Every structure is written in C-alpha cells, then in structure tokens.
Amino acid sequence: MAVLQPLLLILLHVLLTCPAEIKFSNGFFYQDILRENIGDVHWFTGVKLKVSSEVHSVFAMSGSNVTLPCWYWYEPPVSGPRQVRVKWSWFPSPEAQESDVLVAIGDRQRSFRDFKDRVFLQQEAPGDISLIITHVNLNDSGQYRCEVIDGLEDESTTVDLELRGVVYPYQPPFGHYRLTFTEAQKACEGQDSAVATFKQLVSGWQEGLDWCNAGWLADGTVHYPITQPRQACGGLDLTPGIRSYGSRHRRLNHYDVFCFSSILRGKVYYLQHPQKLNFTEAVQACIEDGALIAKVGHLYAAWKFMRLDRCDAGWLADGSIRYPIINPRPNCGPTEPGVRSFGFPSSSQKHGVYCYSAS
Ligand SMILES: *[C@@H]1O[C@H](CO)[C@@H](O)[C@H](O)[C@H]1NC(C)=O
Ligand SMILES: *[C@@H]1O[C@H](CO)[C@@H](O)[C@H](O)[C@H]1NC(C)=O
Ligand SMILES: *[C@@H]1O[C@H](CO)[C@@H](O)[C@H](O)[C@H]1NC(C)=O
Questions:
Q1: Which ligand 1 atom sits nearest the alpha carbon of residue 135?
Q2: Looking at residue 239, what is its pLDDT?
Q3: Helix (H, G, I), strand (E, B), or coil: what is residue 181?
C-alpha cells in the first residue's frame, strides 16, 4: 500500500495535467501533435475548419418537411475538394442520450432508426450540409448537432427543432386522475397527439393556458399551469406560474395528462347535417361525407392554426362533446377564446359532429 500510493499519485497527476483541449472523438490519438504544439491542433495545415448554422431554432408543423441549416468552410479557403465526414445527431431533450440521425462521406449517406429514409443532406452548394427532414412528426423535436470531421479537425454546431403546436389538458372518459404514465401516453396518441414536454407546457401557459388539474408531461413529471391564481388552485398567495409535483411514480401514481397536437394537412369541419345525431350515427355521418370523426387533437389544432370558430357542440372520436371558439360571444361559453368541453355524455344523446379529412 505504502508503495502503491506514490504511484497512484503520479498517475493521478498525469491524468489531471493533460490539457483540456485534447479531443478523442474521431478516434485519433493526438498526443504526438500536442507535444509539438499544445493548444493549437491546426498547426499542421494552418487551415481552420469552420461549421455554422445561421439560425438557432427552426419551427415546423407535424407532417411538413423542414430544413435545418448547416454549412462548413475553411479559413483561409482551400483549393480542391476535401473528403469530410458529416454527422448529424439528435438529443430529444437536454438530459437524453444522443442518437445518430445521419452520417455521410462523400456521396454516401446513411440514416438511422426513426430517421431511416426520411432525412437527406441538402447539398445545394459546396459546404451545404443542411439536413432535410421529411414528414416531420411530433417526436422529432429537440436539439440537432451538425458535426464535420476532416482528418484531425472536428467542429460542430447545434440547431433546435421546435414543433408548432397546441397544448391541451386531457382526461379520459372514465374520469379524473385515472392515468398512469403509460396510459397517459396512449391517451394522447389516441388523439393524434404526444404527451407535451415541459417546454411546450411553458409556451402554452405563456399563451394563457390555465388548468387546475395536475397532468403528466413527457419526462414523467407532473405539473399544472395557472395564469389566474385562485383559492382552489394552490391559493391566492402564489404568483401565476407552473405548479410542480415533480417526478411521480410512472406506474403507481395517477393523473390527467397534457397533450401536444400539431397538424398541417387536411381540414376539420362541423358537418352540415339535417338532424342531430347520437354517437354511432355521428361516426357514420363523417364516413359518409368522405372523412372520419375528428379527434380531440385535430379540433385543438384547427382552433389554434385554422382559427376554427363554431358555436355548435359536436361529437368527437373519444365520445366527448366540444366546440371551438376564437371570438367569445354570449351563449358560447366563457369570455376567453378556447375549446369548450361538455365531457362525455351518454352516447345516445343527439348532437352535431366534427369531422376530419386528411386530404
Ligand atoms: C416532403 O418531401 C417529400 C419527398 O421529397 C415529398 O414527397 C412531399 O410531398 C413533401 N411534403 C411536403 C408537405 O412538402
Ligand atoms: C412517437 O413515439 C412513441 C413512443 O416512442 C411511438 O409510440 C409513436 O408511434 C411515435 N409517433 C410517431 C408519429 O412517430
Ligand atoms: C343511435 O341511433 C340508431 C338509430 O338511428 C340506433 O340503432 C343506435 O343504437 C343508436 N346508438 C346509440 C349509441 O344510442
């Protein structure tokens, strides 16, 4: 032990005094170069590799195609083409593991997992390695890293992809505070939506979302957004904000959920029909009109992005009755715009219906 200790100390000393600039990320060992010239790994060519994106964030709707800009060049410029390796990777959330999106060497490109055959390099000009993502879906949001490797040089930049959408609270037909985390995911997917992220809930709150029931978010935490403090929702002493229950047990705890919806294609409409319909008739009437009965996520997206305003209560696919209001007016619910809900009445009740056609 007495002999080992000095050895260990020397080893520690060596490890701790290695210059911080050393990067091993492209699999090369830099030691010889660094011994020559610590702190400047570019000395061997005198040329610096630069990588940049002109934007910090890009916004997209679900179903659209999107371009995440990224460029590389050399300072001073080099003559003749150089073989570089381009790698795009993705961080769904700040804590999440990185996953590969696309790698390219010359004309060869390879894409991975959920991105397979859905992503391409734009390559409209020399140095253009912008990433095109087709058929963007609700799961694609997050931070993307664009990395270029040329021999010993390795430079990168990041671009955030944010989905334009709307956050809404959801309770299932069987009642309040009934969903485990997995059931919450299924409930949102059933409405063509995803469980909202904390960031999306914050945007919703900034746009006025006020809801006094706690709901799951995508990271397994439970929150609710309050814009007008009141006694029943944490008391009058608290300022407006997002109330947090923190992380909850995903199988043992039960809450509502906040869903996130974003659609680009198609239209949502109130069906013109001579009679009021029970639920089974409503489902059938949309089919006869060449559409499907709308889901809750469709109605919220249409209200938010197509400004659907209709003071007629109608059936939706989950068996709830709702209607969307942009311009509040007497006999059409509260004084704020919003999607009004009458919960889940008996399926034999007669109402109108909202349909969704994707084409
Ligand atoms: C997205 O790109 C694909 C392939 O290039 C194309 O077929 C599709 O029509 C595009 N979609 C939109 C919404 O522009
Ligand atoms: C999003 O991810 C969930 C779970 O990872 C998956 O079940 C769902 O199908 C995905 N949705 C889309 C539109 O890819
Ligand atoms: C709706 O009405 C039809 C008759 O038009 C009836 O056959 C059906 O059982 C009713 N459905 C419900 C859920 O009440």
A1: 1
A2: 86
A3: helix
